[in-house]
UniProtKB/TrEMBL annotation:
Domain of life: Eukaryota
InterPro entries according to UniProt: HATC_C_dom, IFN-induced_PKR_regulator, RNaseH-like_sf
Protein name: HAT C-terminal dimerisation domain-containing protein
UniProt domain HAT C-terminal dimerisation: residue ranges: 199-259
Sections of the chain in a coiled coil: none
Molecular function via GO: protein dimerization activity
Residues passing through the membrane, by range: none
Length: 283
């Protein structure tokens, strides 16, 4: 492990990751907000993508600064500046043409990493940018004073998934706006999951389906990711026989830490469960 860390190849890779992921760190925090504004998020993603593309066009100068930092760290750690040994007859991949050690690391690590980031951002977020932005205007907190044109892009894209007629969507949207106009702005749902709970499936079948789609889009919610991460921590080998109800309860307690649960609430729930318990609770 120590040998891998005290390796010039590792030092260069860490510096490259630190430089590039520094641009996406705050964005990743923003994408995990429960009341995410999709338009703002996609605008920031587009800005970061353009920045990465400019770095790609001027990769020699950008990587030059990164390489200087890597060399400084290597000097402090007494790590020799060198590149991996290159075979004459390479079987698994072709030898990268280069004239110096710096150019070797730029071509083998920096440029592929940067290209992968640009490609991933475009594929994940920018492919259906207008459709995703259009979907958010179904939310009660954003739909007020918005015409049907704001969600037409999403309706046209998901028309095959809608249970009702396309002609009735506009009427549903007008009624949906009227419903929330009289509600206090602070009481209007700001997330797709909260809006889905408040949406009557019978009265607004098409909007209900669009809200379901909005709730499961990766860019619009991080609830599923939090659930998977929590279950990964809870469902260990020692808890493999935990019942479903107990596992769900532990997961909810872990996810919703902002909800205060007192001892009295737990005891009342325990006592009113309806099961005969021969236990003496001493407090």
């Amino acid at each position: 492990m120590l040998n891998c860390i005290c390796n010039f190849n590792f030092i260069v890779a860490v510096n490259i990751s630190s430089k590039l992921l520094g641009y996406t760190y705050n964005l990743s925090q923003y994408l995990q907000k429960s009341n995410l504004d999709l338009a703002t998020a996609l605008e920031q993603i587009e800005t970061i993508t353009l920045k990465f593309q400019k770095m790609r066009e001027n990769c020699s100068a950008v990587f030059g600064d990164i390489y200087k930092e890597a060399k400084a760290i290597a000097t402090l750690l007494n790590v020799e500046e060198k590149k991996p040994r290159i075979c004459v007859n390479q079987r698994n991949r072709s030898n990268i043409p280069h004239c110096s050690t710096e150019e070797y690391y730029m071509r083998t690590i920096f440029i592929p990493h940067l290209d992968d980031l640009i490609s991933s951002l475009n594929d994940r977020f920018m492919t259906q940018k207008e459709t995703i932005i259009s979907l958010q205007y179904i939310l009660p907190s954003l739909c007020i004073n918005k015409s049907f044109l704001f969600i037409r892009e999403a309706v046209d894209f998901y028309v095959d998934d809608l249970p009702g007629f396309k002609d009735t969507v506009e009427a549903e949207y007008d009624l949906w706006i009227s419903k929330w106009t009289s509600v206090d702005p602070s009481s209007r749902p700001t997330t797709s999951t909260d809006a889905l709970i408040s949406c009557d499936k019978t009265l607004y079948p098409n909007l209900y389906q669009l809200l379901k789609i909005l709730a499961i889009l990766p860019v619009s919610t991080a609830s599923a990711e939090r659930s998977f991460s929590t279950l990964r921590r809870l469902k260990t080998y020692l808890r493999n026989s935990t019942s479903e109800n107990r596992l769900v309860g532990l997961a909810l307690l872990n996810i919703h830490r902002n909800i205060c649960t007192t001892d009295d609430m737990v005891l009342d729930k325990f006592a009113n469960s309806g099961r005969a318990r021969r236990l003496k609770l001493v407090i």
